[in-house]
Amino acid sequence: MVSSDLLLAVKCMTIDTDLDVLYLVNADNEVISIDVNNSSLTKCCDICLDVASYEAICCEFMSEERSVFIALTTGHIVVFNTMTNTYGTVGCLSDGIQAVAFSLDQELIVLVTQNNSLVLMNKLFDVLTQKDLNTDEFGCHELVSVNWGSKATQFHGEGQRDSRTQQQTFKSYSDFDDKISQISWRSDGLYFVTSFFDHKTNYRKLQVWSRDAVLQYTSECLDGLEALIAWKPSGALIASSQLLPNKHMIVFVEKNGLKHGEFELPFTPNSFKVQHILWSNDSQILLIIGSETREQLSPQIMMLWRQTNYKWDLKQRYEFKDNTIVAVNWDSIDASLLHVILNNGQYIRYRWKWSTDDLKGMVALIDKNHLKLSDFECSVIPPPFYSYSLDFKSQILETCFSKNKLAVVLIDGTIALFEKSAKKETNGWNDFFAITLENMTKESEEVFNCFYANKCEDITKLTHLTVDETGLLYVKVLDITTDTDDHIIAMSCLKDTIGVIGSSGHLLKANLKDKVVDYWTDRCDKKVVFPNRCSRLELIQIENRIVSICLSEDHTLYLDNE
Predict the structure, then answer these.
(1) Cβ of 254: how many Cβ atoms within 10 Å?
(2) Where do the ELP1 N-terminal second beta-propeller domain residues begin and end (predicted)?
(3) What secondary structure does DSSP assign to 86-112, as a single string?
(4) What pTM was estimated for this model as a whole?
(5) What is the pLDDT of residues 82-91, one digit of tens each?
(6) CATH fold of the domain at 447-562
(7) Least confident of 353-362, 498-507, 529-538
């Protein structure tokens, strides 16, 4: 984490993935760099132009030129050279700029001016073509009627006859719409989509363009469609948001402009403003950031959604009460890494990993504040369907099984412990109940061990929770400090030994009795270091020695260093 007054009002951010350096432009038009490897911050230069007022709306690191492209609202295009720490103006659009997007190969740049003109440039900033977004044309692939009749003559289902003639009165645009255009490229660079507000119809429209800026499709008119768009990297769908009188949704639109799927946000209508929609580069996570609008001090909310068998589940939810996110970007190399800038000048990196855990056929799936359990020993009920659910008052962060016990970590810091009942219920399912002093299994000699790791002020704290046979809960905190700036990727425990894998690939050994943390060594007394990122770790005992078995993300299996 990095903090500085220079980051108090960041307007845009870009990443040099080769050197792990972030470049940012703040409200004072200062270019700032952050070296992620050593957490150092440098002010590179001030952008000074001969105009009254201007601010950056987009910046993009150009890897071949080792330069940062910066677009200003006045229409000026500035290029900052990271090798010489100098900048220059390479062009200017007289109508100003409201949106910019680079193709993934950085060969083409699409800009939308303040009067909704689309400008296509190459990487040398030569204008290739210019189009007007305010067009009545559908595109090259206009839909053809197959004579299925009008809506009034189509079958609408039992009890829905009157709906054929009734006209629903929805507002054509959202109250949160700022009327600003947006651009998003498909990852292969063959198509891009623009979202612009058509003042003639009072609808926001999506237009899909080819790589050479030829209009292909125009979306159907969707009531309450909002401005933000994000094309899924896998190329299938375009994500946006839609506000209706009875619900607020994230909707998906196909390349042909037709709506294809949706899921509802867990907020009442007109109470939540969507501020960011971003896909991770592996298309696994859809990031939604917004804030509730009913109260002045409402927190900003960051949500991570994932699709399982066509069902969208809220996997993680974070609330920012005192500070808000002003800039956010997924890392283009590490799909699980998120870069965040807060309005108090803090730069934070979030990294997640997918974890699969089960208990003798019992599988748990997180969805908001519900833990959905499926017992595959009794019946095959694949997620998102489930046998039964454990409901909590706040968002679930993580779960883990230990023998016949279950631990659930909540976002408010609460850890809920459950034990699996030995008796069978009438419906055939085993039941989970909360572990307390009254209902703890007295005849059981098993001790519940739970470990939770978090990083605070560059020190990783390993919290050890123990529930003994009387139901009493003991908490021990062990500090893990190494000579590398590690964060924990995976953990495993056997007896009094805990194995911890750091982001650098080192395997650490924590002894619960001695409270000593040291590097794990193999049978040749060499430090165990994994060359590939390992997300699964298990400890086993071979004769009198505890060894580690690790599975890397490229499916390589390691036994210590072997």
Answers:
(1) 15
(2) 366-561
(3) EEEEEEE-TT-EEEEEE-TTSSEEEEE
(4) 0.81
(5) 999 999 999 9
(6) Lipocalin (2.40.128)
(7) 353-362
